[in-house]
Specification:
307 residues; nine-stranded mixed β-sheet; seven-stranded antiparallel β-sheet; 8 helices; 16 strands; 27% helix; globular
């Protein structure tokens, strides 16, 4: 892996690594002819850094590798090298709280060749200032959610457990949610069961019992974290099919994402829940999540000497 001297370069907006070279994030580029761009042929993962600590870095790298193998990419970097890259781009940026992405891109083959197995795959990563899924005021008043009429791409077509760039359904659902006055949509499968939302997993709470879908959605690291927290707190949690009717009748709904952890909702399809604020179970899980993170739970210190 080649290096770039920091010198007088402003790294404050973030640092990147693309196909063997480190650079400021503003200089990172993907060719217009790359199949990653032409075909959305990319798998990726995102890990957060908070107060100089990676959260569940091992889990994110392991899931990234599973996604790489599921979609038959063959990058040259090993998991150990990838870890070094992620530490280095955060160190280069100097960021104490960061959104750190790792992508595997299809690349391209020789002119006239369209077979994906002939493409030269490569890794691209970047570290940028941490941003939440929603602004602070939304965290306090809770998300306004709406069930979309647009179904999630079926698992038989695109395996959602491998984090990928196929967002056509998500994007159209987001337009629809905006038109409905909601912050985000929730997508159902063709059987009418809940799957996920754009960039987050979904949980419902009914009579103190937490439930989350078991099929056709990303098996999120934050989702797994909440399942573990429920066990610690003595909250019953179920992983099972959830109908649209259950979602609409839920006492509480919350979502989980690397970009914000646990985020409670206040409305579903216009119906007010919990006095138009995140409910008690959602709030307890959010508070516990951040308290444990700040105390070093599942963390790995960034090596800021890795510049």
């Amino acid at each position: 892996m080649s290096s770039t001297k920091t010198g007088a370069i402003d790294w404050s907006k973030g640092a990147a690594y693309v196909n063997g070279t480190f650079m400021p994030i503003g200089e990172a580029r993907v060719p217009l002819t790359d199949w990653a761009y032409r075909r959305s042929d990319v798998v990726y993962d995102v890990v957060s850094v908070w107060d100089g600590q990676f959260f569940r870095l091992d889990d994110h790298i392991a899931r990234f590798r599973r996604s790489i193998e599921r979609y038959r990419f063959t990058p040259q970097e090993t998991d150990a090298e990838l870890r070094q890259i992620l530490h280095r781009i955060v160190a280069m940026s100097g960021l104490r709280s960061a959104y750190v992405a790792m992508d595997c891109l299809r690349g391209q083959a020789a002119l006239g060749i369209r077979v994906p197995s002939k493409a030269k795959n490569y890794i691209a990563c970047y570290a940028a200032p941490f941003t939440s899924l929603v602004p602070e005021e939304h965290l306090q008043r809770g998300l306004k959610l709406a069930i979309s009429t647009i179904p999630r791409i079926p698992h038989e077509c695109v395996d959602a457990t491998a984090k990928n760039f196929h967002w056509g359904d998500m994007n159209m659902a987001m337009f629809e949610a905006e038109e409905m006055g909601a912050d985000f949509p929730l997508l159902l499968d063709f059987k009418g069961n809940l799957t996920e939302g754009p960039g987050f997993n979904v949980f419902i709470v009914r009579d103190g019992v937490v439930a989350t879908p078991d099929y056709n959605m990303l098996e999120g690291i934050s989702r797994q974290t909440v399942i573990e927290l429920c066990a610690e707190l003595g909250i019953d949690v179920q992983v099972r099919p959830i109908s649209a009717a259950e979602v609409r009748d839920a006492d509480e709904i919350f979502v989980t994402s690397t970009a914000g952890g646990v985020i409670g909702a206040s409305r579903i399809d216009g119906r007010i829940m919990s006095n138009d604020r995140p409910g008690p179970v959602s709030s307890e899980l959010r508070e516990t999540y951040w308290e444990k993170r700040k105390n070093g739970w599942h963390t790995e210190p960034v090596n800021y000497d890795a510049v």
